[in-house]
Design brief:
With about 150 residues, the protein is an alpha+beta fold. Helix content is about 35%, strand content about 15%. The chain folds into two domains: about 1-75, Ubiquitin-like (UB roll); about 85-150, Orthogonal Bundle (DNA polymerase, domain 1). It is built from six helices and five strands; from the N terminus they run ββαβββααααα. Strands 2-1-5-3-4 form a five-stranded mixed β-sheet, sandwiched between helices. α5 crosses α6 (about 140-150). It is globular.
């Protein structure tokens, strides 16, 4: 094992883990940040999405040794009080059913809106289709992203 200094949600954190430990497990097991979910483990579903220097990435496929100086933001760090425009829009549109994929959905949408603050419906569909929602709340997700974009 090795010691890694990483920045998570604006705080320097130190973890003692194997170099190939995926960031998902560093966050969940070493740092007790369980908002990021395990879905498929092969970077296909998006439940584990976090930001790495503002870009949406699948934390299940990024080893801690690859993070370096990059800044990680998790759902816990998106908003201290849970009042990010996306989180508010998610509640307004009753997006979650089971809720399992929602942290990843929100993190993906937040990275997307930071680059495209005035998206079309097609832009939203293209940006969000890579995250799987087993409850199929895609229409509500699109509506929430539109509302959040208007409120940001």
């Amino acid at each position: 094992m090795a010691i890694y200094n990483i920045t998570v949600n604006g705080e320097q954190r130190q973890v003692d883990v194997d170099a190939d430990t995926p960031m998902l497990w560093v966050l969940r097991d070493s740092l007790d940040m369980v908002g990021t979910k395990f879905g498929c483990g092969i970077a296909q579903c998006g439940a584990c999405t976090v930001h790495l220097d503002g870009n949406a990435v699948r934390s299940c496929s990024i080893p801690v040794s690859a993070v370096g100086e990059a800044k990680i933001t998790t759902i816990e760090g998106l908003s201290e009080k849970g009042d990010h425009p996306l989180q508010e829009a998610w509640r307004e549109h009753d997006v979650p059913q089971c809720g399992y994929c929602q942290a990843g959905q929100i993190m993906n949408a937040a990275a997307f809106l930071s680059k495209n603050p005035n998206p079309s419906d097609a832009d939203i569909e293209n940006a969000t289709h890579t995250n799987i929602c087993r409850c199929a709340t895609y229409n509500r997700i699109k509506a929430a992203v539109k509302t959040a974009a208007a409120n940001m």
